[in-house]
Amino acid sequence: MALQESGEMYLETIYVLSQKGSSVRSIDICEHLGYSKPSVSRAVGLLKKGGYINVSPEGFITLTDIGIEVSQKLFERHTLLSNMLIRLGVDESTATEDACRIEHVISEESFNALKKYFENL
After folding, report:
1. Are residues 9 and 58 located together in one domain of the fold?
2. C-alpha distances in angstroms, 34 versus 13, 21, 29, 79, 106?
3. For the whole model, what pTM was predicted?
4. Residue 23 structural domain
């Protein structure tokens, strides 16, 4: 199943929430993203069907191996792009918002070139 940008956003959110050391539930995603329960429920169902997450009978959400791989990649892109824009003088709020949009459309080749460039500064 190919992920749309919204699916990637959900995966990245699940990853970020899980890194805080707590169990992740749909309500946590709702609160973090400011989305409605029906929207999150639909997305969780699609991510589960696509093999990106597992949902326990108690409603706890965990990433599968492929879910971890995709979400870590997105998180790395978001972090590097945010930091890069901040270093270029963009205010943090704008840099974070722009990085969130860019991370979903930038090619692997361009991202790797930016990553290499900024690592060598």
Report:
1. yes
2. 12, 21, 8, 21, 25
3. 0.88
4. 5-64
